[in-house]
Design brief:
With 282 residues, the protein is an alpha/beta fold. The chain has helices at 33-49, 64-71, 85-93, 101-104, 129-138, 153-161, 173-181, 192-200, 213-219, 252-263, 271-275, and strands spanning 22-26, 53-57, 79-84, 105-120, 144-147, 166-169, 187-191, 205-209, 237-245, 278-280.
Length: 282
């Protein structure tokens, strides 16, 4: 998660920061990994800042709706936006965007990384990534995979592994997970915090985790690597950052206050974060 905001105010022009509630724009629906992270961090951040932090869910269009809102907000440090990997990739997926992520938003701090996991519905007769790829190649068009947004990891798996699976695009991660658990979709690649609870309950089968060997051992599933048959680019974390309008970084007192507060708001030893397979970066 990455924080940033707009142009710095002139000295003496505004009260000491923060003097009013801070809005946290979230490019996701309620219930997913990014939403969970925001709602774990926001109360502690509010306590440290001494102001209310309001989480504003703006899901849809791969996060473009949220990013447009954030890019047009007043650059005064009172609007921050949560930015994950998919928002950085959207430049490649959309010919025209109503914002420029580099020009309009500036980073403040990275907060967490979340491992992604490859899962299948238990009805699919595979137990490893190699078996999934082999089965999909032997049965072209038979499987479909659920995706909560364009350009998700599943799209890369399909393209790089050269397999024929229909993409079923849902309006966000929660409905994609629900339909995969129900067997309407066969395969999904998503964050461990979204999918591992269902895998542990036997409602999904986890094939591999895009994580370190240490974390994979803790989750009792295989880490993704070339040896598992997955293309190398699949072996990546899903990053989540906090950002805001460009210029927030130029206001040293504001950026340092927000970043120092957020860096202490999510302890790496937190049992809640450990259970969700997330790694705090700040």
């Amino acid at each position: 998660m990455l924080f940033a905001t707009g142009a710095a105010a002139q000295p003496g022009a505004t009260p000491a920061y923060p003097s009013k509630p801070v809005r946290w724009i979230l490019p996701a629906q309620a219930g997913g990994a990014n939403d969970t992270a925001a709602r774990l961090i926001a109360p502690r951040l509010a306590e440290l800042l001494g102001q209310t932090v309001v989480v504003d869910n703006r899901g849809g269009a791969g996060g473009n709706i949220a990013m447009e809102v954030a890019s047009k907000a007043q650059p005064d440090g009172y609007t921050i936006a949560q930015v994950s990997t998919i928002q950085a990739m959207n430049k490649s997926f959309y010919r025209r965007l109503p914002y420029d992520l580099v020009r309009d938003l500036a980073p403040v701090i990275e907060l967490i990384s979340v491992a992604t996991v490859i899962v299948v519905h238990p009805s699919v007769p595979v137990h490893t990534p190699q078996e999934l790829i082999a089965y999909a190649r032997a049965n072209p068009g038979k499987l479909n995979f659920a995706s909560g947004t364009n350009g998700a990891t599943g799209h890369y798996l399909k393209h790089l592994a050269g397999i024929d699976m229909e993409v079923v695009l849902y309006r966000g991660t929660p409905p994609a997970v629900t339909e995969t658990v129900a067997g309407q979709s066969h395969v999904m690649v998503g964050t461990s915090s979204d999918l591992m609870p269902f895998a542990r309950a036997g409602k999904l089968r986890a094939l591999a985790l895009t994580s370190s060997t240490r974390r994979s051992r803790a989750a009792r599933i295989t880490p993704v690597s070339r040896s598992t048959g997955c293309p190398s680019p699949i072996s990546r974390y899903c990053m989540s950052n906090a950002s805001g309008r460009t210029g927030f970084m130029r206001s040293s007192s504001r950026s340092s206050r927000a970043s120092s507060a957020s860096s202490t708001s999510f302890s790496p030893s937190s049992p809640r974060s450990a259970r969700k397979c997330s790694t705090p970066l700040a």
